[in-house]
Amino acid sequence: MMKNVFLLAALSLCLFQSCDNDDNEPVPGYVSAETKAAFDEKYPSAKDVEWETRNDYLIVDFKQDKVEKEAWFDNSGVWYMTETDIPFAQLPDAVKTAFRQSDYSTWKVDDVDMIERRGVETVYVIEVEQGNSEVDLYYSPDGILVRTVLDADGNDGYEDFIPSQPSSSVEAYIKEDYPSARILDIDREKGMTEVEILDGTVCRELLFNDGGAWMQTKTELRISALPDAVMAAIKASQYATYKIDDADFIETPDGEWYLVELESGDREVNLRIDALGNIL
């Protein structure tokens, strides 16, 4: 009889431990205590937790409220990004409306992700496909299309979308010149810092040098927003029969101009034109 009591107690203990672990795998030795604590604090109800390393990051796949997520940390416990798989129906209404009014509304929706990132704007990515073509559409929560990635062939957890940390001078410039802007992305490469912002409904790219000094602002323009003088200059040029494919307004410490991309068949040309219609 006493033996049966001990067996029941041992069985109860095993069942309790199984429930307590929630079938999560043991935390690998390469995950620091700081990172494990940061994850537990941010996602206390996580289930089916699995860890892996990728480049300089610790990535954890898990479920929370039956939703699949992937979070990115470093080994000092700093969180950088979380990707959440969501159904199309759970997108913000503004995003759904913008997509349904887009050129890709008839394409098949293959996947939808919500990307939350440290210090910058949350974005929603709608992956669509038609035939052999795939496109990733990045939207702000209020339905503004901020990025289009053509011929998208999958991603590696959006690693390239993890923002860098700007210098204090870069932050100060943005706060002073664009106080209401939302930061979409920060990328640092070869000593240069590129910051994408959403200024109201306008997307801008700001470029800073290694010392944090502002070098350039590029603002995307609708073709219909080009000044009459710029359009007249194009029509009077040798590229009058070319189609306008893209247009940006460029600001630098040395001057401003419109950068117009023209194409005709396989030929492409970029024209720099000032506000008076002079081709530079």
Largest sheet descriptor: 8 strands, antiparallel
Structural class by sheet pairing and helices? alpha+beta
Number of helices: 5
Separation, N- and C-terminal Cα atoms: 98 Å
Helix and strand pattern: HHEEEEHEEEEHEEEEHEEE
Helix fraction by DSSP (H/I, runs of at least 4): 10-25%
Which class of the largest domain in CATH terms? Alpha Beta
- Contiguous runs where pLDDT drops below 50 for at least 5 residues: 1-22
Query: How many domains in all?
Result: 3
Q: How would you state the average pLDDT, rounded?
A: 86
- Rg over alpha carbons: 25 Å
CATH topology of the largest domain: Nuclear Transport Factor 2, Chain: A
* CATH architecture title of the largest domain: Roll
Overall 3D geometry?
globular
Strand content: 35-45%
**Structure summary, number of beta strands:** 15
Order the strands across the largest sheet as they lie in space: 1-2-3-4-5-6-7-8
Describe this structure in words.
It comes from Parabacteroides hominis. This is PepSY-like domain-containing protein. Residues 60-146, 194-280 form the Putative beta-lactamase-inhibitor-like PepSY-like domain. The protein has 280 residues and is an alpha+beta fold. The protein folds into three domains: 2-84, Nuclear Transport Factor 2, Chain: A (Roll); 86-161, Nuclear Transport Factor 2, Chain: A (Roll), CATH 3.10.450; 168-273, Nuclear Transport Factor 2, Chain: A. It is 20% helix and 42% strand. It has five helices and 15 strands. The protein has helices spanning 2-21, 33-42, 93-100, 168-177, 228-235; strands spanning 47-54, 57-64, 67-73, 79-85, 108-117, 123-130, 133-139, 145-150, 182-189, 192-199, 202-208, 214-220, 243-252, 255-264, 267-273. The strands form two sheets. An eight-stranded antiparallel sheet has the order 1-2-3-4-5-6-7-8, with helices on one face. It has a seven-stranded antiparallel sheet with strand order 9-10-11-12-13-14-15, with no helix packed on it. Strand 3 (67-73) and strand 4 form a beta hairpin. The termini are far apart. Residues 1-22 have low confidence and may be disordered.
